[in-house]
Amino acid sequence: MADKFDVIVIGAGPGGYVAAIRAAQLGLKTACVEKWVNKEGKVVHGGTCLNVGCIPSKALLETSHKYVEARDHFAELGIKADGVEIDVAKMVERKAEIVKNLTGGISGLFKANGVTALEGTGKVLPNKQVEVTGHDGEKATYDAENIVIASGSVPVEIPPTPLTEGLIVDSTGALEFSEAPKRLGVIGAGVIGLELGSVWSRCGSEVTVLEAVDSFLPMVDAAVAKEAQKLLKKQGMDIKLGARVTGSDIKENEVVVKYTDANGEQEQTFDKIIVAVGRRPYTQSLLDDDAGVKLDERGFIYVDDHCSTSVPGVYAIGDVVRGPMLAHKASEEGVMVADIIAGHKAEMNYDAIPSIIYTFPEVAWVGKTEQQAKAEGIEVKTGSFPFAASGRAMANNATEGLAKIIADAETDRVLGVHIIGQHAGELIAQGVTALEFGASAEDLALICTAHPTLSEAVHEAALAVDGHAIHIANRKKRK
């Protein structure tokens, strides 16, 4: 007879491991299946985010930013630091150490919470059974009252630039460069492309970003996107919009990329290429043909608002289902599903999920853009405040960017908060809280915000919605 669990989670990324821990905390007998093997041949937890995504990329972003700050800006603060150099190998080594510590931490949390870690590849069978194929090929079958699929996503590959070890890489390969390539091409000006392009640009690469779409960061409020494009260009990143890659040729240790833009056919030579055109749900060998779990037309597992699939008792969360491919979204879905399985009522507000691009300055947003609201026929009023007028931003030598709030013109309810600036990813929590609690712009304006802090910019933007900002001249309202 197969071992039986109340919950079996497939995948130990930020959705899966959180779901497993929460389920175990709620008294459910829980197992979590993971197949990810590190360079030492050991199964590790944390998924893409922890092993080759959010965490390692932030480690490289932070190191490379500190390097540029020391090299180019310390003198402005009165700090003499001549001959500053970056040790790329040491930077990558530090990144690996952080990943090792955190993956080990998850394994420890599994033990502390009584989660059974199953090593191997999970497959959903009919009748709520899970088959686990170990790395030695041995198969074991487990019964489950409930299954949570959290198999995540993988980078999208494109035919014009097939991955070629050492020359054309995806986001994972871009974290492992041993030195900064002289000429680096990045295909895709989304979150991943801009972050990885920033890292290697700071380390000395000449970075060209090729983006097929004509607009820059279309998911971001237009005022913030415009500012981001200007600042990244100022930092040396050559962002070509409307540039559709059509092919590539490898000549010795160089890659010639062919693309079309408004001026016709073009080509450019690079030492390395990063393909960062998005991610797709990972469902390879995940579902038995008779499992009954349905996929939508894009290959995502179909789920309802509570992450239930077409099979009762089988749930799916994170990148493998609809919605933004964000670690924190996956984690919150994991908590919701575990609560539902345990018999509790649980909901998730998909309108209050923040997004962040960890360039410098950071770009962060939650809720609607001004353009979205207007397209939906909502009359809006907005308020903005530049960090150039912030005392703390001046003290930090980080005066670039702005905070912007979009509110319903009739009800004053906050519809969106958009920030570009130092620590925007931390500041956006104010906006998430405002949306979650249905706050008005006046609510944010009435909050006493500590001085001097960067968070005052959000407060002033809220004041500016009704023309009451204190530390900038307010726009005259049209009569």
Automatic annotation (TrEMBL):
Name any one GO molecular function. dihydrolipoyl dehydrogenase (NADH) activity
Q: Where does NAD(+) bind?
A: G188, A189, G190, V191, I192, G193, L194, E195, E211, G278
Instruction: State the free-text cofactor note.
Output: Binds 1 FAD per subunit.
Which of this chain's residues are annotated to bind FAD?
K58, G122, D319, M325, L326, A327, H328
Tell me where it mainly resides: cytoplasm
Recorded GO cellular component terms are: cytoplasm
Database matches in InterPro entries: Class-I_Pyr_Nuc-Dis_Oxidored (IPR050151), FAD/NAD-bd_sf (IPR036188), FAD/NAD-binding_dom (IPR023753), FAD/NAD-linked_Rdtase_dimer_sf (IPR016156), Lipoamide_DH (IPR006258), Pyr_nuc-diS_OxRdtase (IPR001100), Pyr_nucl-diS_OxRdtase_dimer (IPR004099), Pyr_OxRdtase_I_AS (IPR012999)
Q: What is its EC number?
A: 1.8.1.4
Domain named Pyridine nucleotide-disulphide oxidoreductase dimerisation is located at 353-462
Please, what other remarks does the record include?
Answer: The active site is a redox-active disulfide bond.
Can you say what this protein is called?
Dihydrolipoyl dehydrogenase
Q: Which organism is it from?
A: Cobetia crustatorum
Which lineage ranks, top first, belong to the organism behind this chain?
Bacteria, Pseudomonadati, Pseudomonadota, Gammaproteobacteria, Oceanospirillales
What gene does this protein come from?
A: lpdA
